[in-house]
Write a structure and sequence with these properties.
Keywords: Transcription, Transcription regulation. The protein starts with a helix and ends in a 7-residue tail after the last strand. It has two domains: 56 residues, Arc Repressor Mutant, subunit A, CATH 1.10.10; 189 residues, Rossmann fold, CATH 3.40.50. It is an alpha/beta fold. The protein has ten helices and 15 strands. The chain is 38% helix and 23% strand.
């Protein structure tokens, strides 16, 4: 069997991906370590977003492991730039806007660096880094517990900060989005926060490239308000967009340069 913490955790991930559910006792016997060692492994892996733990010490590994923000930065780069350019053009002078954590919202923050008389609140480290030198943008960090994998803040402190503000527009990211269930994410902390973001905002935009349409990689969902706007790129197939249009969602398809089609 694998020796060393890293090798053991990699083996646990592979085992859980094929068996679906594994108990602490079974893992302890398989890897010839104590149950407390396995529990530490599982706690660290859960914190990193590699698996979800269930009652009684069992674990369930998602068949689609969550990608880190670093990994997502290289995905659909041109599509995200186009989506961000369109989104930035919707924001008006004097508005207060809310940016979710994520790579596409980070690209939107990049577009806003030259803005004036704008207030931007965010839960994302990428957006904060982009706006750190933007002298004419008032930046509010919502704080909370840092979720390292997604480089975003979640938890009760972030939720409390949200409750003290309202927003003209909220721009949300997603690991997947469907017309019926809304935004799909790896954790309930993320989806609860996104629901609160939507409730505190007059207009809600979900920014996703085409590959995320209709995807259900995880089991945590954020319900969206009756009226919201889906913003995606021109690689989106008509069949993928049809359920959103049928549900009366405002759909914006963006081509190169941020021009809506």
């Amino acid at each position: 069997m694998p020796r060393g913490t890293k090798a053991r955790r990699e083996a646990i991930a592979r085992l859980a991906a094929t068996s679906g559910l594994t108990s602490v006792r079974e893992l302890s016997a398989t890897f010839k370590v104590t149950p407390s060692t396995i529990r530490r492994d599982l706690a660290q892996m859960e914190s990193a977003g590699e698996l979800a733990r269930t009652y009684g010490g069992a674990i369930a590994l998602n068949a689609h492991p969550e990608a880190s923000l670093r990994q997502r930065l290289g995905e659909a780069f041109e599509a995200k730039r186009a989506i961000a350019a369109w989104a930035a053009a919707q924001i008006r002078t004097g508005e207060t806007v809310l940016l979710d954590a994520g790579s596409t919202t980070g690209a939107l923050a990049h577009e806003l660096r030259g803005a004036r008389e704008l207030t931007v609140a965010t839960t994302g480290l990428t957006a904060l880094e982009e706006l750190a030198g933007a002298e004419h943008v008032h930046v509010e960090c919502l704080g909370g517990t840092l979720r390292h994998l997604s480089a975003g803040f979640v938890g009760p402190l972030a939720e409390a900060a949200l409750s003290r503000m309202t927003f003209d527009r909220a721009f949300l990211g997603a690991d997947g989005v469907t017309a019926d269930d809304g935004i799909c994410e790896a954790s309930l902390q993320q989806t609860r926060l996104k629901e609160l973001m939507a409730r505190r905002s007059e207009r809600v935009y979900v920014l996703v490239h085409a590959a995320k349409l209709g995807r259900r990689p995880f089991h945590a969902w954020a319900r969206l308000p009756a009226r919201w706007t889906l913003v995606t790129d021109d690689q989106a197939e008509p069949a993928a967009l049809a359920p959103f249009r049928a549900a009366d969602v405002d759909v914006v398809v963006v081509g190169p340069g941020g021009t809506a089609r």
